[in-house]
Specification:
Strand order of the largest sheet: 3-4-5-6-7
Helix content: 10-25%
Structural class: alpha/beta
Number of helices: 3
């Protein structure tokens, strides 16, 4: 399920981003956006939903797409999101894809990691910028760009591999 699709956003990635937020469901307490902790919250993600996202991404002034949670890398979300991200990458190869996850790239998203599935690498290969690490209220810092707490990292990826950390 997804909770919301938001258009015309400038907070969750560089430039103007259309169809920027899919509030995905994940039962992970302490994460951003409490309603998404319930997998029964929201609307079913369908082919029509995916087609609408692609339509919203089409204008040339839209720089890219951002995927937020709940938790995109929750194993239950990965099969559908791998397909969605691959379709966005095929359709709009020049648009950037950002993803926010409470899981860690180099710990949880590797073979044998907490949430690694056959779909994890497919998702990572489509993502240009991954903001990883759980939001921690005690480390909240409003001066940080594109992240909420100082433990979170901004990771630049190419073909699913880390190429640079930071902005």
């Amino acid at each position: 399920n997804y909770g919301n699709i938001k258009s015309y956003d400038i907070a969750d990635g560089t430039g103007v981003r259309e169809a920027v937020r899919i509030w995905l469901q994940a039962p992970l307490k302490g994460r951003f956006n409490a309603p998404t902790w319930d997998f029964n919250y929201g609307k079913p993600f369908t082919r029509e939903t995916q087609d609408k996202l692609l339509e919203l991404l089409a204008p040339s002034y839209i720089e890219g797409f951002s995927l937020l949670g709940g938790e995109p890398f929750e194993p239950e979300n990965q099969p559908v999101l791998a397909e969605l991200l691959e379709e966005i990458r095929r359709t709009f190869p020049d648009k950037s894809i950002w993803c926010y996850s409470g899981y860690l790239f180099d710990k949880d998203m590797v073979p044998g990691g907490k949430i690694y599935t056959p779909f994890t690498d497919r998702m990572l290969s489509c993502i240009d910028v991954l903001v990883d690490g759980e939001f921690i209220q005690e480390l909240k810092n409003l001066s940080l760009q594109f992240r909420g707490s100082s433990n979170q990292r901004i990771l630049h990826l190419k073909d699913g591999k880390l190429i640079k950390e930071g902005l």
